[in-house]
Inverse folding.
């Protein structure tokens, strides 16, 4: 049986030392993720003490919260290394081996799916300015966990006691179930890795294109202002980047903020790929008959055990942006805008030729000028629009896109 299931009895010295390192990183990740989960859960329940609005309504925040739950299970699996060290052997099938194999499987798969979910949500929020309704979002979260449980539980149900056995330096899917390894694990890991990278690459180029268009509009606006000065301030009406703000979000929207928001989200999939790709590549190499040395899996396992602490550090470094804004989501709250506020908003537009007033419809493009399209949504109540048009006011108001807090006229 030892040869069939890869039992190590007794543990070789290098494996024992590798298990100690994996166990330490797993313990650190477990403590950090559990502590953060408890803190965040408390903040979600008692949000009135800390925030103006419930942070549970922030979809990106909830996605990262679920990623932490997945990381916690993954980190917990490597703590079992201390049990194997105390026994001076790695054996299975056994209860401890089953628990470790289960936690590794659901932790790996679910963390990959949540990273892909974060990437997909960011893509639709920034590029298409669309998010799920709250009810649909909750259903999607439940379905994602259900799918993760299905991928983890279907193997043990069908194969009984021999599914999770020693596989290298820890317990995982029996090597004789190569098809199950591929379809229940590797396939979804590579989908998550490749899908996240492709998604964020698309986001990067999409934002660059939109920001370039916005820059062109502003340059054209400045040129039009210099050539139309003699015709008076009310002869030409235009469209440009317009910033809408409320009392809940008073910070200015800028190109740097848009790109920085995207960078906040991109670190999660890149960290995931960096930490999980070595182990996945090693397993695939083993499947094609070129298994790496056992020391390789010890290093790869240590990287996997580090996922929790790395994601905690990433969350702590981006938490302000995550709490203050939901990327790509429009505010669910109805805001009553006064006439003075509307005038102040209109005063932030540049003058361009080719637009005219159309009665109750306000300012619209002339038939000869194509309508600009596209809106880059940055937060619940702050957005930049190429369709925004306004009536130019005083010349000094044209110098800045940031709404002034002073008295308006």
């Amino acid at each position: 049986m030892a040869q069939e299931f890869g039992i190590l009895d007794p543990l070789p010295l290098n494996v024992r030392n590798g298990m100690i390192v994996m166990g330490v990183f797993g313990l650190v990740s477990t403590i950090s993720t559990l502590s953060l989960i408890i803190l965040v859960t408390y903040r979600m329940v008692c949000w009135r003490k800390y925030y103006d609005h419930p942070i549970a309504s922030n979809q990106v925040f909830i996605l990262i919260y679920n990623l932490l739950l997945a990381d916690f299970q993954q980190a917990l699996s490597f703590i079992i290394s201390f049990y194997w060290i105390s026994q001076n052997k790695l054996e299975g099938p056994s209860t401890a081996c089953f628990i470790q194999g289960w936690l590794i499987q659901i932790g790996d798969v679910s963390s990959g799916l949540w990273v892909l979910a974060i990437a997909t949500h960011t893509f639709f929020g920034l590029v298409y300015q669309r998010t799920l309704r709250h009810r649909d979002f909750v259903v999607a979260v439940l379905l994602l966990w259900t799918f993760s449980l299905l991928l983890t539980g279907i193997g043990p149900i069908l194969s009984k006691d021999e599914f999770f056995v020693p596989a290298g330096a820890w317990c995982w899917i029996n090597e004789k179930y190569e098809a199950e390894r591929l379809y229940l694990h590797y396939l979804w890991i590579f989908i998550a890795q490749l899908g996240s990278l492709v998604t964020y690459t698309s986001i990067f180029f999409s934002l660059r294109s939109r920001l370039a268009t916005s820059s062109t509009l502003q340059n054209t606006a400045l040129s039009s202002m210099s050539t139309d000065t003699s015709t008076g301030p009310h002869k030409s009406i235009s469209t440009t980047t317009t910033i809408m703000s409320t009392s809940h979000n008073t910070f200015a929207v800028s190109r740097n903020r848009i790109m920085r928001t995207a960078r906040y989200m991109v670190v999660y999939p890149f960290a995931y790929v960096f930490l999980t790709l070595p182990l996945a590549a090693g397993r695939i190499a083993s499947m094609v008959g070129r298994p790496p040395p056992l020391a390789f899996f010890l290093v790869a396992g240590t990287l996997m055990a580090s996922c929790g602490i790395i994601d905690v550090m990433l969350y702590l470094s981006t938490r302000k942006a995550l709490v203050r804004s939901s990327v790509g989501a429009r505010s669910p709250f109805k805001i009553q805008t006064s006439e003075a506020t509307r005038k102040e908003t209109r005063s932030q537009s540049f003058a361009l030729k080719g637009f005219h007033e159309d009665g109750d419809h306000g300012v619209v493009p002339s038939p000869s000028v194509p309508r600009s399209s596209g809106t880059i949504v940055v937060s619940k109540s702050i957005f930049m629009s190429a369709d925004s048009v306004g009536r130019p006011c005083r010349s000094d108001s044209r110098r800045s896109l940031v709404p002034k807090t002073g008295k308006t006229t």
Summary: The beta strands are 164-166, 171-173, 238-239, 242-243, 355-357, 363-365, 375-377, 383-385, 389-390. The chain has eleven helices and nine strands.
